[in-house]
Amino acid sequence: MKHEVIREPDRLAVTEARRLFRLTGRALRYYEELGLIVAHRNSNNVRWYDAVGRRRLEWIARLKRFVPLHDIAEVLRAEEQEGGRGRALALRHLERRRVALEDELARLEAVMAEVRS
Fold first, then answer.
1. Strand 12-13 and strand 40-41: pairing?
2. Do 95 and 76 have their domain in common?
3. Which end of the chain is more exposed for a tag (fewer CB within 10 A), N or C?
């Protein structure tokens, strides 16, 4: 007899979270240690995330390449505790990163010009 996996819509299994957000198990545990996400456990001790955890993982996955984790924590707090202010805060952090990248690109182009001459 084949057993079906019962999926509850409000629960996101860790294995599904890893696949969906392209994160490693180690990264998920690290985010849990930092308090960025909370994993719940079922009766079989299997970890899962609720709707809040899923939203937090969406933010983390979206921002982690460009925004430091301490700033992501600030975005998460603002989104949940300050009436959705997280989006504006995330944009400020991303803009700051964009400006830094533009400055770095300008320095790179200057060095390339020196090397060419």
1. unpaired
2. yes
3. N
Q: What's the confidence (pLDDT) of residue 82?
A: 86
Flag the least confident range among 3-17, 21-35, 98-112: 3-17
Residue 8: the pLDDT is: 55
Q: Same domain, yes or no, for 52 and 80?
A: no
State whether 19 and 56 are in the same domain: yes
Query: Is 48 in contact with 40 (CB distance < 8 Å)?
Result: yes
Q: What single-letter DSSP state applies at residue 84?
A: S
State the Cα–Cα distance between residues 58 and 79, nearest whole angstrom. Answer: 12
Q: Do 40 and 58 belong together in one domain? A: yes
Tokens of 39: 């994993």
For 1-38, what is the HEC assignment?
A: CCCCCCCCCCCEEHHHHHHHHCCCHHHHHHHHHHCCCC
Contact 41, 29 (CB under 8 A): no
DSSP symbol at 49: E
